[in-house]
Amino acid sequence: MSGPLDRLERALEGLVEGTAERWFPSGVHPVQLAHGLEALMQERAIDGARERLAPNRFVVRLDARTADRLEPVREAIERDLEEYLEDAAATRRLALHPPVRVWLEPDAALPGGRVSLDATFEEEPRGHGPLTEPTVGMPELAGTSGDVLAVLEVVEDGATPRRIAIGAEDTSIGRAEENDVTLADRAVSRRHATVQLEDGQFVVVDLDSANGTQLNGRLVRRAALDDGDRLHFGTTEVIFRQLHA
Question: Which pTM was predicted?
Answer without folding.
Answer: 0.48
